[in-house]
């Protein structure tokens, strides 16, 4: 444990790992870019080989590429072999949100993690000359002298040679130092890195920067270690700042130094950057699987680079605040490490199920999880929900999945013997009839419901004896029946099957994805699975 950690004096506390007593083996797979690529398949597979040989318990992969068929996907291939050796593989979902169908690392045998906020902020306030104040966030180290400074839009501060659409984003080489010097510049979020915008403003002579969200990033504000006093504000507040500048002859502003604020509400909510489902390779498997803290996460940092990663940034700090699914993935890896220590005989699928079926879809105001634009988030954003580590210690029941289940799943995808041999290291006799819908997964997704369909699942007892009753929250326009609706478990390891039948209701179902839940409960445990359905409606 590392005492007295902070980032430029903010977020004071003691830093510790997710699995505090675990040993860490690191395998370097990403290198300086060659033709734009940094993480090559050969290196990724070599690292999986080494890690399996070394006998690791958990593999945390904060990397990803565009989604591809599993037999061409090095993470899917490597993680399959790792799962065969009992290793749990945890991956990032990607940072290409908030658009749909952007999630990466889509194979069912690893855990795919989205990113959400935590109940800590680093507020810094923007005071305007009209007595209006806006709350933003930042981890700037420098302090502005307490007085008003002229504030200018980046488009009004552009070089004559620069395009307005580049200047509004404070892109490299767009700002005119003669117009910027001594002023606070307002930059719009998007395209180039947030910290790069601050650097461009600083190099042009600005004393501060207001970074305003665009519509898609909404309320997601991130505390970055900017090279100048800065405040990152949401879309609504940003619009008000632009309005003030446009309607005032001599607009002025001041940016306060950041502070640390705890117990903020609502939290968590989904990060706008977090990649989303549906799964573009196998729509029958919901991805991401889970969400975890991934915004303004403080952790140990290399001193080979400055905190903004910009060449220009000569500062060096031992701990930094970073955002991304690269930050949320290791949170889940740490939890997996603890579960692996508690339950050394559990399969990777059982550990994954424990994490998913105990997650929450409510925030700290006991309201449904929101996305960054204040709308209600769906399982395409958060999978089963926000991780709850202590609940995962006692899931009651798990959806266990065998390697043969996964191989039958590959057969059902239509893979030929050569393609399957990438996963098996030998011939595999495919089961004649296996539906993708019936993979024993902790979530249930029916992407093409025509009339009615029945899916099968198996539950295994990992807790005390109990009688579990099925409760269903029906998706809009869909009726769901569970048979049997009562399961009695006497012994640990006992496994029971059940069937779930989906029917689209005439006149009520729509062509859109709709969401519900299946909950098995004995009064103490609530084994919860997200349900995702899209009805195929035919016009008469």
TrEMBL record:
Matching SUPFAM superfamilies: PA domain (SSF52025), Subtilisin-like (SSF52743)
Keywords: Apoplast, Glycoprotein, Hydrolase, Protease, Secreted, Serine protease, Signal
CDD domains tied to this protein: PA_subtilisin_like
One MF annotation (Gene Ontology) recorded for this entry: serine-type endopeptidase activity
All copies of domain Peptidase S8/S53, residue ranges: 14-384
Biological process terms in GO annotation: proteolysis; response to symbiotic fungus
Location(s), subcellular: Secreted, Extracellular space, Apoplast
Superkingdom in the source lineage: Eukaryota
Transmembrane regions listed in the UniProt entry: none
Keyword Protease: yes
Gene Ontology cellular component terms for the protein in this record: apoplast
Domain Subtilisin-like protease fibronectin type-III intervals: 438-533
InterPro entries for this protein: PA_dom_sf, PA_domain, Peptidase_S8/S53_dom, Peptidase_S8/S53_dom_sf, Peptidase_S8_Ser-AS, Peptidase_S8_subtilisin-rel, SBT, Subtilisin-like_FN3
Residues annotated as domain PA: 168-240
Function of the protein: Required for arbuscular mycorrhiza (AM) development during AM symbiosis with AM fungi (e.g. Glomeromycota intraradices).
Family to which the UniProt record says this protein belongs: Belongs to the peptidase S8 family.
UniProt name for this protein: Subtilisin-like protease SBT5.3 isoform C
């Amino acid at each position: 444990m590392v005492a007295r950690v902070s980032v430029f004096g903010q977020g004071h506390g003691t830093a510790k790992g997710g699995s505090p007593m675990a040993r860490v083996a690191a395998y370097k797979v990403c290198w300086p870019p060659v033709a734009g690529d940094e993480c090559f398949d050969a290196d990724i597979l070599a690292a999986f080989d080494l890690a399996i040989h070394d006998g690791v318990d958990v593999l945390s992969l904060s990397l990803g590429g565009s989604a591809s068929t599993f037999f061409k996907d090095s993470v899917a291939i490597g993680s399959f072999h790792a799962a065969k050796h009992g290793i749990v593989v945890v991956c990032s979902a990607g940072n290409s949100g908030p658009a749909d169908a952007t999630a990466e690392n889509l194979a069912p045998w690893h855990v795919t993690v989205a990113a959400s906020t935590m109940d800590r902020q680093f507020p810094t306030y923007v005071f305007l000359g009209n007595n209006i104040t806006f709350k933003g966030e930042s981890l700037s180290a420098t302090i502005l002298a307490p007085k008003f400074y002229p504030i200018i839009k980046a488009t009004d501060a552009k070089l004559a040679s620069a395009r307005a659409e580049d200047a509004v984003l404070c892109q490299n080489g767009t700002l005119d130092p003669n117009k910027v010097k001594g002023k606070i510049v307002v930059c719009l979020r998007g395209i180039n890195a947030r910290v790069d915008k601050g650097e461009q403003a600083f190099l042009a002579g600005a004393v501060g920067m207001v970074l305003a969200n665009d519509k898609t990033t909404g309320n997601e504000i991130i505390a970055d270690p900017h090279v100048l006093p800065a405040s990152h504000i949401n879309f609504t507040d940003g619009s008000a700042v632009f309005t003030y500048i446009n309607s005032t002859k001599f607009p002025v502003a001041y940016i306060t130094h950041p502070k640390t604020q705890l117990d903020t509400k609502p939290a968590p909510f989904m990060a706008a950057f977090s990649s989303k489902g549906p799964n573009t390779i196998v729509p029958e498997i919901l991805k991401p699987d889970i969400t975890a803290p991934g915004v303004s996460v403080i952790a140990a940092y290399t001193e080979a680079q400055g905190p903004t990663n910009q060449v220009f940034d000569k500062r060096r700090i031992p701990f930094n605040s970073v955002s991304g699914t690269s930050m949320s993935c290791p949170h889940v890896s740490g939890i997996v490490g603890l579960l692996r220590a508690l339950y050394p005989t559990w399969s990777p699928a059982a550990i994954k199920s424990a994490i998913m079926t105990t997650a929450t879809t409510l925030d700290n105001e006991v309201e449904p999880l929101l996305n960054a634009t204040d709308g209600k988030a769906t399982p395409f954003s958060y999978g089963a929900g926000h991780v709850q580590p202590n609940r995962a210690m006692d899931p009651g029941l798990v959806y266990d999945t065998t390697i043969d289940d996964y191989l039958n799943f590959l057969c059902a995808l239509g893979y030929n013997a050569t393609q399957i041999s990438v996963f098996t290291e030998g011939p595999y006799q495919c089961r004649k009839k296996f539906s993708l819908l019936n993979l024993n997964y902790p979530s249930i997704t029916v992407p093409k419901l025509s009339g009615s369909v029945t899916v099968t699942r198996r539950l295994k007892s990992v807790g005390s004896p109990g009688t579990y009753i099925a409760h269903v929250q029906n998706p809009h326009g869909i009726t769901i029946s569970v048979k049997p609706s009562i399961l009695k478990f006497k012994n640990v390891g006992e496994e029971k099957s059940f069937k779930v039948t989906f029917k689209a209701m005439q006149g009520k179902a729509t062509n859109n994805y709709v969401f519900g839940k299946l909950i098995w409960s004995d009064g103490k445990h609530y084994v919860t699975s997200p349900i995702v359905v899209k009805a195929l409606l035919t016009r008469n």
